[in-house]
Description:
Number of domains: 2
Order of helices and strands: HHHHEEHEHEHEEHEHEE
Bound molecules: S-adenosylmethionine
Strand order of the largest sheet: 5-4-3-6-7-9-8
Shape: globular
CATH architecture of the largest domain: 3-Layer(aba) Sandwich
Distance between the termini: 59 Å
Strand content: 15-25%
Radius of gyration: 20 Å
Number of strands: 9
Largest sheet: 7 strands, mixed
Mean pLDDT: 96
CATH superfamily of the largest domain: Vaccinia Virus protein VP39
Low-confidence stretches: none
Amino acid sequence: MTGREICRRFKSAGIENYRFEAEILAEELSGRSYSDETDYAGIEPAVKKREEGYPLQYIIGKWWFWDCEFIVNENCLIPRADTEILVDTTIKLLPKGAYFADLCTGSGCIAISVLRTRKDTKADAYELYKDTLKIASENAELNNVSDRISFFCGNVLDRCVPNRKVYDAIVSNPPYIRSDVLPTLDKTVGFEPKAALDGGADGLMFYRAILDNFTGNLKEDGFFAFEIGYDQAEQLKYLSEHRNMRCEIKKDLCGNDRVAVVRFEQKFV
Ligand SMILES: C[S@@+](CC[C@H](N)C(=O)[O-])C[C@H]1O[C@@H](n2cnc3c(N)ncnc32)[C@H](O)[C@@H]1O
């Protein structure tokens, strides 16, 4: 099948960035550069899978985020460009030599990206599923940060971090989609783990649990940094204020509310 045919098939299937996806698929699976005329023999099954909605990232088994490459498969959420706002915020706010936690680490993309840029820091990453943790650990190796990160299997809805651990920051991109919204999402998202997306009836279950369970694991002048949905800023402010904390919201490049930074009241500047 030629490059041009892959583009045509993806366009007819309604894939928005059909040319970009055709180029990546052809190049990654063949090891050759893309051209409209090149014949990519044997690519038909992958093209068919993508036409059926299966994510390009799972087909090629990798994706790019921040300045890193990450292994991805059906056991982890595909890293999203929106999440780079949380990485950027964390990198700017962490004090020198910081020790931070990444809760709900998934592919490990947040902690690993921060560690790559901030070589003075170290991290602990927590995740519920062993198979997901395995990918995160492989990604730490791939990106040469495994000497500065430790991985733990734990349920963030419980107190999975021991009391003796005290961090400069606790960051998280937890599941935050309302359960009733999940069935309305794009077909491609349906191939990603439901447990990575489902934030409970009001989408706030994980923020509540993290603010309730882990304030004792945060230094007095430390901060929580969360990725949030575009419509969750007011709710995060409410949850924070009811716990004597203050919340500052950062926007993404489209102008949507995207990150909440939460600190103890007296230390907020
Ligand atoms: C939205 S994904 C974020 C993954 C990654 N941090 C990222 O930004 O791409 C949420 C992650 O939380 C994990 N998770 C779900 N329930 C959890 C729980 N109760 N405790 C710990 N992790 C959980 C999921 O398996 C998934 O990897």
